[in-house]
Amino acid sequence: MTGGWTGSLTIVATAGGLVGSNTCAVVILIDSQTGGNFSGTMTISEGSATSCAQSGTLTGSIATSGQADFGVNIALGTTLPCVRLTGDGRFRGTRSGNNLTVQASETLRCTLGNATQDAARTMTMTLNKQ
Question: Which of 23, 60, 67, 70 is deepest in the core (most CB within 10 A)?
Fold first, then answer.
């Protein structure tokens, strides 16, 4: 897993019967790996619908079968105060050669002023090793 990975993060959210999506550019740098455990940094930028500018760290694991599991310490895709109702915020998926596809699903409860809205969202990352 060590080295650079680039690709996209697509966030699809459904709230109040409305569906929205945003696709962002992703750069991941895995700078440490011991056995199947790895850590590094992640930067997301651009955005097809709204800015995605965030960065942070990630930690995870990769099995010899290619099954990947990792978490990031950034609030991907939201600027509102939100609480996670379901999901654990971890991305899971498969590495095949130089390609990695992972997904996370969750339900958030977000508040803006006196309004509260629940939103279900799916986040999919498609990455290629550089």
Answer: 70
**Angle 130-75-114 (CA atoms, 0-180°, nearest 5)?**
155
**Residue 22 is inside which H or E element, if any?**
strand 18-34
Burial class (CB in 10 A: 0-12, 13-18, 19+), 114: exposed
Residue 123 structural domain: 3-129
| Model pLDDT for residues 24-37, shown as the tens digit of each residue | 999 999 999 999 99
Give burial (CB, 10 Å; 0-12/13-18/19+) of 64: exposed
d(CA 18, CA 61): 35
Q: The domain that contains 65 carries what CATH number?
A: 2.40.128
| Model pTM above 0.85 | yes
